[in-house]
Amino acid sequence: MAGTWLIVGLGNPGPRYEATRHNIGQMVIDELAARRGETLRAHKANARVAETWLRPGAAKLVLAKPNSFMNVSGGPVSSLAKFYDVPAERVVVVHDELDIPFDTIKLKTGGGHGGHNGVRDVAKALGTPEFPRVRVGVGRPPGRQDPADWVLDPFGSAERTQLPLLIGDAADAVELLVEDGLLAAQQKHHAPRA
């Protein structure tokens, strides 16, 4: 679908959080940039950004990682959407999702935030929850571990072996969403794996 799309990976800034579950959205942005040989650079909207294309002659992509902490992601996202004149329906937010098992991707537009404070803040800043989301499953913590601590932990060793595939699948989902729309991306990524 033509036009400019803003693809935002949610996470927390700094090396302490880089490899944590909460930052999988930013890992997906890194993958999308790497596929295109792009480097993210500082932007005045308190984010790092790479302007690129889905493929030659196709939609323009603005890949972005807010420099703010997760719970206040809305400001940078809203500023970028205004700067690039991108409507909410073309702001794709990629984020971790506790209620989806690890190694699973789900896509949706709109709806609630499911307790995800980053998504809540983006919806508030955009003035609508009606934006597409690529929800990357990180699963619930084992035992009685607090979910807030779980998402700030690095992936376990077994998960790390699967992580490149999961990040690749999420990047594929973003590309398909932009190219063919939400339904096509849902049909491919919500189906059980063969």
Structure description:
The protein contains 6 helices and 7 strands. With 194 residues, it is α/β, with parallel strands linked by helices. The protein has one domain (4-189): 3-Layer(aba) Sandwich (Rossmann fold), CATH 3.40.50.1470. Strands 2-3-4-1-5-7-6 form a 7-stranded mixed sheet, with helices on both faces. The chain is globular and about 45 Å long. GO terms for molecular function: peptidyl-tRNA hydrolase activity; tRNA binding.
Q: What is the element layout, followed by pairings?
A:
Blueprint: E1 4-9, H1 24-35, E2 41-43, E3 47-53, E4 60-66, H2 74-83, E5 91-97, E6 105-109, H3 117-126, E7 132-137, H4 147-150, H5 157-180, H6 182-189
Parallel strand pairs: 1-4, 1-5, 5-7
Antiparallel strand pairs: 2-3, 3-4, 6-7
For the record, what CATH class applies?
Alpha Beta
Number of domains: 1
CATH fold title: Rossmann fold
Mean pLDDT: 93
| Shape designation | globular
For this structure, what is the CATH homologous superfamily? Peptidyl-tRNA hydrolase
In whole angstroms, the N-to-C terminal distance is 28 Å
Question: Counting H and I runs of at least 4 residues, what is the number of helices?
Answer: 6
Main pleated-sheet profile: 7 strands, mixed
> Structural class of the helices, strands and pairings?
alpha/beta
Strand fraction band? Answer: 15-25%
Q: What's the CATH architecture name?
A: 3-Layer(aba) Sandwich
Q: Got a strand count?
A: 7
Order of helices and strands: EHEEEHEEHEHHH
The order of strands across the largest sheet is 2-3-4-1-5-7-6
Which blocks of ≥5 consecutive residues have pLDDT under 50? none
Helix content: 25-40%
